[in-house]
Amino acid sequence: MTTKRIHILTHPLGANYGGIMQAYALQQALRQMDYEPVTLDIPFDRRSRLRRWAEAQVRTVKRISYDQSIRSERVVLQHTSRFVQQHITLSPPLRSDAQLRQHYRKQPAHAYVVGSDQVWRQEFVPMLDDYFLGFIPEADPVRRIAYAASFGVDPIDIAPERTALYSELLSRFVAISVRESSAVPLLAQRFGATAQWVLDPTMLFTKEEYIDQLGLREEPSGEVFAYMLTHTPHKEELARQIAESHHTTYHLFAPWRHWTKRGQELEACILPPVERWLEGILNAQCVVTDSFHGVAFSLIFGKPFVAIVNNHGGCSRFDTLIKLFDLEHHQEGAYELVSSPKCYDVKAIAQTLARHRITSIGFLESALH
């Protein structure tokens, strides 16, 4: 009997709202095609930012034991973990190469899908060979697919000595798609691989579908929603200026800024529920963000926004979206402050998204067939 199971490799799901939502959306899209998606739970050996925070507490507050730090992490991630448990099908934790290979042997799949998110960024993925599916024997006919995979930075940070190996592994893929358009020529030139640009998985669904699927409350707040992956005084000042120009307040959604707090202030570090993050964007007057997925959901929900981009690295994550929708005026340099975001044609954005949803879903359907 042929299995319809699809195994997905992406980043670990825990503290990153955008990462959680792209994993959710890809599974939803595959379910609608009548497949059985399972995201492989592969904890990275490299300590997460949250783990570093927890271990810092162990060093600086001697009475906090290692077990307490683990419990603290569970407290901090309680809401995001609940969302993952409720909405995303995961494999058992695969904590080593041996466990990953054993899972591969014991759990047959119709296909392996790598993506989305920055799965090919060496800095973030210490076991990068696995994300080119190096653990699958060459003779295995299982379908190998990359969906909206991202290198994250331009130039990419993959070591030159890995080029030959990854070129060989990519040649075994039946279809490759990428999240940044700049990666299409890069894959051809460096790895000899043919790739197609597709939408990030989060953009495969409409505002109305997200409201219906997740029970989101649409109650306009009139606020400026400031979602910061990396909080700085410059970015908060930008949000304050925009709110002031609109005669309103701003809501700073940057719980990570509390991770330097001592153990006795653990409550301040708890990440809010994923649904509250989505509602923050959905109900905002406008959005100020340094996050790719903050921009993506602003577009999905039809919200004016300002994208704060670090021009010293990582711009490629934003460039494709900004250029696709002809929104260059919404992109600001890392420390440039502006008075207000400009509006855009919400209907035109929705029409562009609808066109690209068709081709992106078509890519997946064809690759899996």
UniProtKB/TrEMBL annotation:
<feature type="domain" description="Polysaccharide pyruvyl transferase">
    <location>
        <begin position="16"/>
        <end position="312"/>
    </location>
</feature>
<protein>
    <recommendedName>
        <fullName>Polysaccharide pyruvyl transferase domain-containing protein</fullName>
    </recommendedName>
</protein>
<dbReference type="InterPro" id="IPR007345">
    <property type="entry name" value="Polysacch_pyruvyl_Trfase"/>
</dbReference>
<dbReference type="Pfam" id="PF04230">
    <property type="entry name" value="PS_pyruv_trans"/>
</dbReference>
